[in-house]
Amino acid sequence: MNNALSLNEALWVLLLGSLLGLELIGKVPPTLHTPLMSGANAISGITLLASIVLIAEAPTPLLQAMGAVSLAFALFNVVGGFLVTDRMLAMFRRRNDQ
């Protein structure tokens, strides 16, 4: 029995995950966005690993391409999260410490 996800199943997972993410992020109050950034970066790190596994184990080139796209988005999210966190922490530094 083949354990690989079919394209149809992979698209359903993508759709449902996207809708769930939008719903959850929409309910977070603005004061909690910054503390949750580190947790989101950790989750994106897990997504990076899952994308690499998907690329390596994908039976079709289309699923490999989907893995590459997910890898790019996860990498963009991790780098962006660190840049936003660095910028936010810079606001708390004293003027003469910069």
Domain count, please report it.
Answer: 1
- How far apart, in Å, are the first and last alpha carbons? 60 Å
Got a strand count?
A: 0
Quaternary structure type = single chain
Q: Residue ranges: pLDDT <50 for 5 or more in a row?
A: none
Helix run count: 3
Globular, elongated, flat, extended or rod-shaped: what is the shape? elongated
Strand content: under 5%
- The ordered string of helix (H) and strand (E) elements is HHH
The assigned structural class equals mainly alpha
Name its key features.
3 helices, 72% helix, 0% strand, NADP, cell inner membrane, EC 7.1.1.1, transmembrane helix
Question: Mind explaining what this structure looks like?
Answer:
Residues 11-94 form the NAD(P) transhydrogenase alpha subunit C-terminal domain. It catalyses: NAD(+) + NADPH + H(+)(in) = NADH + NADP(+) + H(+)(out). By secondary structure, the protein is mostly helical. The chain has one domain (7-92). Helices cover 72% and strands 0% of the residues. It contains three helices and no strands. The chain has helices at residues 7-26, 37-57, 61-90. Helix 2 packs antiparallel against helix 3 (61-90). The chain is elongated, with a radius of gyration of 17 Å. The termini are far apart. 4% of the residues are buried. The model has no long low-confidence stretch (mean pLDDT 81).
